Amino acid sequence: MNPVATPAAPHAPHTSHLEPGEGQPGTVREHHDHHELGFLRKWIFSVDHKVIGLQFLFSGLVFLALGGLMAMAIRYQLAWPWRPMPGLSWMFPATGGAITPEFYTMLFTMHGTIMIFFVMIPLLTGAFGNFLIPLMIGAPDMAFPKLNMFGYWTMVPAFFFILLGFFVEGGHAAGGWTSYPPLSTIEAAAPGSLSGQTCWLMGLTWVGVSSMMGAVNYVTTIVKMRAPGLTMMRLPLSIWGLMITSLLQLFALPVLTAASIMQLLDRVLNTGFFTPTNLLVNNLTPDSFAYGSEAAAAGGQPLLWQHLFWFYSHPAVYILVLPAMGFTSDILAIHARKPIFGYKPMVYSMSAIAGLGFIVWGHHMFTSGMNPALGMTFMVSTIMIALPSAIKVFNWLGTLWGGRIHLRTPMLFACAFVSMFIIGGLSGIWMAATPVDIYIHDTYIVVAHFHYVVFAGSLFAIFAAIYHWFPKMFGRLMNETVGKIHFVGSFIFTNMTFYMMHQLGVAGLMRRTADPYAYDVYAHLQPINEFITISAFCMFAWQIFFVLNFFHSMFWGKRVGRNPWKAASLEWDAPSPPGHGNFDHQLEVYRGAYEFGSPEVEEDYIPQTRKI
Amino acid sequence: MRYLFTLLLFLVPALGVWTFVEADRWQLWFPENVSSFGGEIDGLFNLIMYMVAFTFVITEVALAWFVFKYSAKNDTKGAFTHGSHKLEMIWTAIPAVALLFIAFSQMSTWAKIKFEGNFPKDGQYTREKPIAEVWASQFDWRIRYPGDDGVLGTVDDLERSWEFVVPVNTDVVFNLRTRDVIHSFFVPEFRLKQDALPGHTIPMWFNAQKEGVYDLVCAELCGWGHYKMSGRVTVVSKEEFEKRMSEIKAEWFSNGKELGE
């Protein structure tokens, strides 16, 4: 059955008995004649990977706006602590509209949680993983279309719980997105540790289930459903990025899901995985903890949660960046009209990042009270992970070198990804160095670091990917002029927002403090925070250009044909947008996805499917 | 247009380096270091900073330059190459050596600060006889001194909230504990940070080399009042330290009347 092993084999016999969506790998699905589906079957309960991808895309963008609004409130408080927010007096009648300290802790907790688990992971793997994988490997759909649908629909209880938390007594979870016990497990420790934390854990568990189903599907599809002739080493790097990401999720996510169920048990069934004995929280002895018995605090280990959490959440950082690296590689090569420089080193370095990613989680715990000898080993593995990242940067530069670069919007965002990833990657070396980390741990330099990787890096790559694959999604181009305006403003304001956080961190400013200026040592940092806040507001407001462009182009954008960018990979062989079943002709792959500027042919590219 | 985009990409390294150069003048740099090992940490930070700055400038300028130089002006084809094994070897080997150098250069300082085997042994305060126990709880700091017998956990222990008084130029060894959730003991001027872990007693040490009052910051989220969980470390001369200890003792054992309250 493996199409790769027998590329020259005659294609599968006529398979008219198959259900729609189930064809032999690499062949055209038979029933692509359109018996009209109702609205519900077509857009809501769809088994079509493209529709599911768009569902993830739209819900991800909605949560992006929500998480962004929270970031604005956080920035407001940091620039002007306790000043009433215009228009928010209905929310905080007691303070006349000023944020309360417990609300502030909830804000940054939910900002992190939503951005990571409800925006970046669903956008990268859910939206683009779903949309691109079958198209780029020449398959009619995912290996398990119904599991795929189920993967999106298990996000619905996740949405429900994560939104429900905002309306329960005490507010949503407020223990940080890391939810360290005992702050998160003991009700008396924080208002958000009442029911909010339970909602948080339920939401996360459902996200985990959804991602696992997605990952199984992606790996199976990539391994089993490639078009004839499409060997693994001919795959576009986007697919490699998504494949490695899915493997990371398969190995790491069960640990987080188990850990969050354990914390859930600690909270509702009074088990004692993470809560030690003899605590005195809020002047309450364990006997009087709201959940009753002494078992609520029975010989647990807070560090155990940190190990389990970071065993997933450090690989999760690579889950957040590997697909982005893949998209960037593809977009750079296509718009620079140049083959990827060092395709195999790119694949190997992505694999190395993923492999090393499993043995570096302890660098989040250098100051946690973990045995300092472990700090040494985690430092060496963490510093060495900079090596494959550096190789990737050099290869991206090599791809641009000698190219014929077209500075279209997707290309601009992809170049910005490289530029910003360099910053985020390099600042990581400080954090990996244990003695330096003693000082900078949990300061703003860490905030700068991960925002440069995840916001200025991965989110810019997502923008690049949206601009790049928009014609395939909707059959129309996004407006170039507005796209460039969106790029210029986003690039400038993003750097104005995040760059000076490095220096704030060197000055020792702690993250997660509602009013840092109460400390003498931080009092002089308020003006720079004001500058950052105003930049952040501008950056947020600037996204209106993206929103308008996105929706306007969806309906009124310029219509384009199959291959507006003259790209070589398979998805551009399908109609724009592709119908149910994707391809309208037989695919046969003869080469890799990056044959640009080849002297063999007159044009400057050779599609993967062209036989010479 | 390519001028604009090249300029944007070029501004990243230009302004990036400039802000780091000027940071000290804008008071956006390390607070004054007063601990014995803080200088080493600053030195290691700077070592990494110079190596990072070098890589940062080279790669960012190359990116901006390539975008400028290779922007399409006509329909000629780009260079047709799939890579270079030799270049890959070079840019794997050189960063590997540099990164290993960074990793190994950090180890001795880390071991000196954190390994219990390397804690000061010769002074008045040691792992066995710490100067005090620092207790964190929502949202304050309490410092428990061992009193006259020098043993913690006995009836003559003295307790003082908020302020940790220590002698100058002395190896100060103390224990960090918490009553409730995780907190973190952070004194920016000492370059010292350590989480307080429920159920654990964590030994720490420092040697403050300048008298003064320093902010003690809680550096791990500990609840709604995290932002105001401040304390202070007061570094005084050895004579003054003895005086302060007897004051603390008088206050702790007073019935309130003697102090005229």
CATH architecture of the largest domain in chain B: Sandwich
How many DSSP helices of chain A? 19
Measured as a percent range, the helix fraction of chain A is 55-70%
Low-confidence stretches of chain B: none
- DSSP E strands of chain A, number: 0
> Strand sequence of the main sheet of chain B, in spatial order?
3-2-1-5-8
Low-confidence stretches of chain A: 1-33, 287-296
Largest sheet of chain A: none
Q: State the separation between the terminal residues of chain A, measured CA to CA.
A: 26 Å
- C-alpha Rg of chain A (nearest Å): 25 Å
Using a beta-carbon cutoff below 8 angstroms, give the protein chain pair with the largest interface and the number of residues from each chain: A-B, 116 and 100 residues
CATH architecture field of chain A:
Up-down Bundle
Q: Strand percentage of chain B, roughly? A: 15-25%
What's the CATH class of the largest domain in chain B, please? Mainly Beta
Q: What overall form of chain B do the CA principal axes indicate? A: elongated
> What share of residues are in beta strands of chain A?
under 5%
**In the CATH scheme, what's the topology name of the largest domain in chain B?**
Immunoglobulin-like
**Which CATH class of chain A?**
Mainly Alpha
Biggest sheet details of chain B: 5 strands, mixed
What structural class is derived from the secondary structure elements of chain A? mainly alpha
Structural class of chain B: alpha+beta
